[in-house]
Design goal:
9 strands, 7 helices, 200 residues, binds zinc ion, globular, single chain, TIM Barrel, six-stranded parallel sheet
Length: 200
C-alpha cells in the first residue's frame, strides 16, 4: 500500500495533513504559527536546511508549538538539474539540520528510483494529493480555497508555503478551509516522528 513515495495517508480517522514548504522564514513563520494556534491545527513544515541553519529560533518555535519539522533539502535543488550525488548530498544535509525522516523534494521532482534509494537510508519521501496553488500569482484565493475544498479527503496531504509571496493567500484560505473541513469531522495532524505504518 505504501511505496517509497507517500501521496496520502489513508486511515480510519478523518485526518488531514497540512504542510508548509520552504521555511522557516523571518517574515512568515511566526505569522503562520499564530494562525495555526488560532485555528487549532498541527502541521508539518518542510524546511530548507539553509533556512533552518539561518534561523534556529524559528525551528525551536515550530517544535515547541507541536508541529513537525521535516526536510525539504538543504537548498531548494531541482533533482532534474543535478546528478544523484549532488542531490543525495543535499538531502542528507537537510536531514542533519531538521532531524527528520520525512523528505519532500523541491518542485516535487525526482528521478525514478530516487525515493527507493532514499528509503534504504530510512528517508521517507512525502509528496501530496492536494496542491493548494497558494504561490501562483495567476490564481485567486477563492480558486485556491475552492480547489482545496473539492480535493481534500481523509488522509489528504495539502501543500501550502511558508514564504512571503504565499502569505496573503494562506492567511485567508487556511481558516476557511479548516472551518469547512472541521464541520465534516476532520482533524488536522502533523506527520508523526515515525511513520504510522510499516516502513518496508
Ligand atoms: Zn519548495
Amino acid at each position: 500500500m505504501y511505496g517509497p513515495v507517500i501521496w496520502r495517508i489513508p486511515g480510519e480517522r478523518r485526518e488531514v495533513y497540512f504542510t508548509f514548504d520552504d521555511g522557516p522564514s523571518p517574515v512568515t513563520t511566526e505569522r503562520i504559527l499564530k494562525l495555526l494556534e488560532k485555528t487549532d491545527i498541527k502541521a508539518t513544515f518542510f524546511c530548507l536546511g539553509e533556512n533552518a541553519q539561518a534561523y534556529p529560533p524559528l525551528v525551536s518555535l515550530l517544535k515547541a508549538a507541536g508541529h513537525t519539522v521535516a526536510n525539504h533539502g538543504f537548498r531548494h535543488l531541482n533533482a532534474w538539474s543535478v546528478d544523484w550525488h549532488a542531490f543525495h548530498k543535499n538531502v542528507i544535509k537537510g536531514r542533519e539540520l531538521t532531524g527528520s525522516i520525512w523528505f519532500r523534494p523541491p518542485y516535487g521532482r525526482l528521478w525514478p528510483g530516487y525515493a527507493a534509494r532514499l528509503q534504504e537510508e530510512g528517508i521517507r519521501t512525502v509528496m501530496w494529493d492536494v496542491l493548494s496553488g497558494d504561490y501562483r500569482l495567476d490564481v485567486s484565493r477563492h480558486e485556491v480555497l475552492g480547489r482545496c475544498m473539492k480535493l481534500t479527503r481523509a488522509g489528504s496531504i495539502v501543500v501550502f508555503h511558508d514564504q512571503h509571496r504565499s502569505w496573503p493567500v494562506v492567511e485567508w484560505v487556511v481558516p476557511r478551509l479548516a472551518e469547512f473541513l472541521r464541520k465534516q469531522g476532520f482533524n488536522f495532524s502533523a506527520l508523526p516522528p515515525e511513520p504510522p505504518f510499516p516502513v518496508r
